[in-house]
Amino acid sequence: MAETEFDIIIIGSGPGGYVTAIRAAQLGFKTAIIEREHLGGICLNWGCIPTKALLRSAEIYHYMQQAKDYGLSAEKVGFDAKAVVARSRAVSGRLNMGVGGLLKKNKVQVIWGEAKLGKMGEVIVANPTKVPMQPQHAPPRGTLGAGTYKAKHTIIATGARPRVLPGLEPDGKLVWTYFEAMVPPAMPKSLLVVGSGAIGIEFASFYHSMGVDVTVVEIVDQIMPVEDAEIAKIAQKQLERNPEMR
Description:
Elements: E1 5-11, H1 15-26, E2 31-35, H2 41-46, H3 48-65, H4 81-105, E3 109-112, E4 114-117, E5 122-126, E6 147-156, H5 178-181, E7 190-194, H6 198-209, E8 213-217, H7 229-240
Parallel strand pairs: 1-2, 1-6, 2-3, 7-8
Antiparallel strand pairs: 4-5, 5-6
Helix pairs in contact: 3-4, 3-6
């Protein structure tokens, strides 16, 4: 019979959730973690990690274009957008499997589904209703599914969601969220990035490096508004040196 009672249940397997689960298990707590979509959460699957892989490809492409500056030669430099995306997804996939391995090694029970809080000390898990962004990595072996679970302590680590602006509702074609921006079937001729925080500037840098005409829109008077003003000013000057970046 499947185990349904735990010392700690964590809802959400992103960096906050899975690290907490592993540490709790190491401290001797009987621990479970609930995930409905991707082990490792947004950061590992559709955020920090795959974005950095895209930026690395763009960086190498930029260096190849500037080969002469390094005393090298490279002719007919180009890129395959599908291959660039495939590499990014592969990097994410390896780390996704790594998280599953760490949870198994530390004897953390994975429960697959959507969680909601019931009465005191109770977590109810149902089959996922949200359609996951593809590709989705398979849940690790030995996961539990829908059911009612009990825990002495419950930790909520469900992360964040893309913000939808009125009049700019994403359709997956002309209006993207970061999900679609990470898996472009081809490079667009131009791109408008709404917001100049870390995510916006990363995407602007990637697409600009791949030859896209990029415009960044920001409501406040500096880009990267949560960063140091001096650093933000330097970054803006650097970006504006490129005629295709506004």
